[in-house]
Design a protein that fits this description.
By secondary structure, the protein is mainly α. Helix content is 54%, strand content 2%. The termini are far apart.
């Protein structure tokens, strides 16, 4: 009986818990300035809904869940109080938990990796960060503390296995210890969300220290974020996703931590997207930015469908924090450039739906009330030990 009352109380408080941690999460999105955005959003949502398969994990493909589809489903559930979309999200999250390693912690990349005869340690940082955020998002939306408990287990895996004491996170459970901007951006973003969820300033401060190290190691003026090895050698040409994911982490840090430097760094990355990566002829953003032989022009490169969606979402979030609509205009140009491809999109439509939604509803978390650090005694504690006398 007591358990039933507790469950009822949690359900009753779920909207309040969500509102406390997510600014505007339960409010309907504002009316869009461009009605065609609504049509694009509805089209993309329809494409995502068509991909739901309850017999194969929900929003999943090739044995791996689509975290953006879960994020979208939970956002729709909040906006519309839609039980169906909430159910689709939670079904996918519960199936995803079957990929969690109950012994060593962390998520395996896909269901194939969980087979006992494979003996794999394929637990990369990127999918773990995305699924980590899905659990926190589910707790805020649904109000079931079981999601927070499971998120704490993922946080423990990050802390024990992926965290680099110098700042930042490694790219996966196995492999070298290079600071890879893309995976670090996603991991730091998730760590900041965990800080907002727990109100723990120590978690926040490590994320901020990680951003400082990433900037020192990876940032190159006029080029952007670069993947360098331990010796400082460049491993790849400037990659779009390195800019986007680190940019999103700096935006969130500026919003939660209030450091002016993080906002300036986010703007610098956003400016590189517009100057180095944007394809002004075709629209959208190139997957990498490499100068030609004369070093006067960026070479043409492929425009990757889902990468462009994430770039548009980053620029929308940047516009919401800076108040500079030039970033939002760039995002809208990128969205329009791919609009003709939306009709045949599969689960990738979720990334695009989140980008379109972010044009007017970026949904950044509310700043929490950070817990005060535990007080320490001003004088060392003296413990007196009395030795019993020997009997004569």
């Amino acid at each position: 009986m007591r358990h039933g009352r507790r469950s009822s109380l949690l359900l009753a408080l779920a909207p309040l818990l969500g509102a406390a941690l997510f600014a505007g999460a339960l409010a309907p999105p504002p009316a869009r300035a461009d009605a065609s955005d609504d049509a694009l959003f509805a089209q993309l949502v329809g494409r995502v809904a068509a991909q739901f398969d309850s017999t194969h994990g929900g929003f999943a493909e090739k044995g791996a869940p689509s975290s953006p589809a879960v994020t979208l489903a939970l956002a729709i559930a909040r906006d519309r109080s839609d039980a169906l979309w909430q159910s689709r999200a939670t079904q996918t999250i519960l199936w995803t938990w079957t990929l969690f390693d109950s012994v060593g912690g962390g998520y395996f990349d896909q269901s194939e990796s969980t087979r006992h005869d494979r003996g794999t340690f394929e637990k990369r940082t990127i999918p773990n960060a995305e699924r980590f955020e899905n659990l926190m998002d589910a707790w805020r939306t649904v109000g079931d503390t079981d999601y927070r408990r499971r998120a704490a287990k993922v946080a423990d895996f990050f802390d024990r296995v992926l965290l680099d004491a110098r700042g930042g996170f490694v790219d996966g459970q196995v492999g070298d210890r290079d600071l890879v901007p893309e995976s670090n951006g996603l991991a730091i973003h998730a760590w900041l969300m965990w800080a907002a969820t727990t109100g723990d300033p120590r978690v926040r401060d490590f994320a901020l220290r990680s951003l400082d190290r990433a900037w020192t190691v990876s940032w190159t003026e006029d080029i952007g974020m670069l993947h360098r090895d331990t010796f400082g050698d460049i491993q790849k040409a400037p990659q779009l996703m390195d800019q986007v994911e680190m940019g999103r982490a700096y935006v969130l840090a500026a919003h939660l931590g209030g450091r002016a430097g993080d906002l300036e760094r986010a703007k610098a990355i956003g400016d590189r997207l517009r100057s180095n990566f944007e394809d002004m002829e075709k629209g959208g953003w190139r997957t990498q930015a490499v100068l030609d032989r004369k070093k006067t022009k960026i070479k043409n490169a492929a425009r990757v469908f889902d990468e462009n969606a994430r770039a548009a979402r980053f620029l929308c979030e940047l516009a919401s924090v800076t108040g500079d609509n030039a970033y939002r205009d760039a995002a809208r140009r990128g969205i329009r450039a791919f609009a003709d491809d939306f009709a045949k999109a599969d689960l990738e439509a979720a990334d695009w739906a989140l980008a379109v939604r972010a044009l007017d509803h970026p949904e950044l978390p509310e700043r929490p009330e950070w817990k005060l650090p535990e007080s320490t005694p001003t004088q060392p504690r003296v413990i007196q030990i009395t030795t019993p006398r020997r009997k004569k």
